[in-house]
Amino acid sequence: MSSKAVPDPLVSAAPDASANSDTSMDERLFRRACARFATGITVVTLLDSQGHPHGVTVNSFASVSLEPPLVLVSIDLRNAILGHFISSAWFAVNILAEHQEDLSRRFSSAAEDRFVGVEWTTGSTGMPILAGALAHLECAVTRTFEVGDHTMMIGEVRYAEYREGRPLLFFESGYRNLG
Q: Which of 21, 37, 42, 129 could form a disulfide with 123 if both were Cys (CB 3.0 to 4.6 A apart)?
């Protein structure tokens, strides 16, 4: 006797490559599959040319290289503050702690006054650093390019600090903490 796994049609689906060359992925399926990947939550910040702070919640963040130390962040093309990031030479990545869900929600909103009432300091490069974050990385922009519906920014890490604590996570379309 042999056992055979039967795929659940709600969990897996793939276009039939032999049927035609259209291999479009169902957006809902793609989002649900990606939701199974736990990510940390960051708030990417900068100061504009007039010295005003701006920030946005980003969970599309990755370490890219150790030599030189590079990171990648991805920002939706429809984000109202994207222009500030495209024109800036610097940005900071603030890695949120488990108690900072409110900051994640605030910086993912469409509000223009996201920094009102938020405790922050100026980092070594002048970038806004959020109080209580687990870590922050201050980065010089090395490359910016569009991919799909996002702008990717590669930054060379020039300064970094961290503290002990537990991260805020996002999994299955919701905030989570380590168990």
A: 129
